[in-house]
Amino acid sequence: MGIGGISIWQLLILLAIVVLLFGTKKLRSLGGDLGSAIKSFKQSVSDGEAEVNKKQDDISLHHEQADNTAQHDKEKNSHHS
Predict the structure, then answer these.
(1) Counting Cβ atoms within 10 Å, is residue 37 exposed (0-12), middle (13-18) or buried (19+)?
(2) pTM score > 0.85 for this model?
(3) What is the residue extent of each domain of the chain?
């Protein structure tokens, strides 16, 4: 038994039929196109994660600056009272 109840012989027969139908050149081209698509998808995901991280850093910096300003204003007001 192979993967999910499919034997290795059934997979080989299926592969032979696919090669006969499409030819090795077409399959090679299809494989290259699929590889390029996967690479492009991974790059897009990576770019998206980098953008999210940058926005999170910007938000954290903004909150830190707001906290510092609030603390400074609080100290300033307590000295004037």
Answers:
(1) exposed
(2) no
(3) 3-80
